[in-house]
Amino acid sequence: MLSISPFVYWAQTADQISLKIDLKDVKEYKIKSDNTKFNFSAMGVGARGLQEYKFTLDLLNEVDHEKVKSINTDNKVDIFLPKIKSGFWPRLICQQQKPMWLKIDFDRWKSEDMDDEDEDENHRNIMKDYPDMYDRLQKEELGFRRESLKKVYLIFYNLFQFIGFTYVLTVMGIRYYRDGEESMAGTYEAVGNAIKFIQLLQYLEVMHPIFGYTKGGALVPFLQVSGRNFILFAMLEYEPRMITKPVVFYLFVVWSAIEIVRYPYYLTQLFKFEIGILTWLRYSLWIPLYPLGVLCEGIILLRNIPYFEETKRLSVEMPNKLNWTFHMPTFLYLYLTFLILPGIIFIMSHMQKIRAKKLGTRSKFD
Fold first, then answer.
1. What is the C-alpha separation between 115 and 208, in angstroms, rounded?
2. d(CA 35, CA 58)
3. What b/e readout covers 280-308, taking b as 16+ CB neighbours within 10 angstroms?
């Protein structure tokens, strides 16, 4: 009678082989191993129900069978086989053709230590140390290179934002080419909804570092995104007389010019290739554009002060149920004094540190 084999998922580090045996409710199991052969048998619930499952592996290289460790949980059995000689194996078994029940455990390539008991030990990404081997094994197993859902999401997010800002810049460019300076008055009407939507989406970039999708902190993107949305939703949306001013056109050009470089750069990083000119632009274009953007925002704030003084929009006067007052023009003065100027200094200092780290003293594009 042919033996029934469970599904077995294997992974490796430089120092050990791990096997994850897909069996549930295993009460007892038998392991027999020498330096080049591993045998396993157990009664448990697998792909064919409650059965006795067994398998044998003729290992490609030697393991230390005296130090084999095993952990039995409710839904799997983990086996750890220390390698006698450190190094990565091109495959697990001697045979070129692996059995159908032997799979690659891609998740366990993420950390060097496979033992769940050593949670405090620093882990490193071994996929970066052996990228060619990882890619080859994955293609052999799946027929294609699997990308994580996180990476797929970031690709689509950055691509969508790039397309959004390109659309805004293209529409403004076509209108300006056709009508010249007369087109500026209708800029907000033409692209206002589009830019409000993609600017609101940028709050996702505040969440990305919080959830570990990207590196860095959440404070700087929060300040940048909130500052832009304050201009859009408080200064422009609430004051129709401001949306026709040429400064809105220039502000949207500055914002879009920054983003149509930033998002393609992020895409290249996700695909792990570098374009010298794009990297240089990403870490250099902000030097003239950030101050220009702040200048445009400052003009909008200053010109809105008399408008908000006249209309009393967003101000709260006494008497009211909450028994408090809020004067929007005064807030705008304070915003200019204590947020805009210190904010641009903080953000530009932050960007300068990143630029120095990324580009160093290089002056060339490569």
1. 29
2. 10
3. bbbbeebeebbeebbbbbbbbbeebbebb
Contacts of 221 (CB under 8 A, 6+ apart): 202, 205, 206, 209
Q: What share of the chain is helix, strand, coil (3-state, %, to 5)?
A: 50, 15, 30
Strands 37-46 and 29-33: antiparallel
Q: CB neighbours of 23 closer than 8 A, spacing ≥ 6?
A: 6, 42, 44, 45, 46, 53, 76, 77
Closest CA to 83 of 109, 61, 104: 61
Structure tokens at 320: 């009211």
* 8 A C-beta contact, residue 257 and residue 169: yes
Tens of pLDDT, residue by residue over 14-49, are 889 999 999 998 988 999 989 899 999 999 998 888
Any idea which residues carry the catalytic annotation? 290, 297
User: In this structure, are residues 279 and 358 in contact, taking their beta carbons and an 8 Å threshold?
Assistant: yes
- Band (117; pLDDT cuts 50, 70, 90): very low
d(CA 223, CA 229): 10
C-alpha separations of 273 from 109, 267, 360 in Å: 22, 9, 19
User: Which amino acid, one-letter code, is at 240?
Assistant: P
DSSP letter assigned to residue 5: P
Query: Would residue 180 be called left, alpha or beta, if left means φ above 0 and alpha means ψ between -120 and 50 degrees?
Result: left
Report the predicted TM-score, pTM, of the whole model to 2 decimal places: 0.63
Q: Label residue 133 by pLDDT band (50, 70, 90).
A: low
- Residues near 361 by beta carbon (within 8 Å), at least 6 away in sequence: none
Query: What is the CA 262 to chain-centroid distance, rounded?
Result: 14
Question: What is the three-class DSSP state of 104?
Answer: strand
CB 359 within 8 Å of CB 352: no
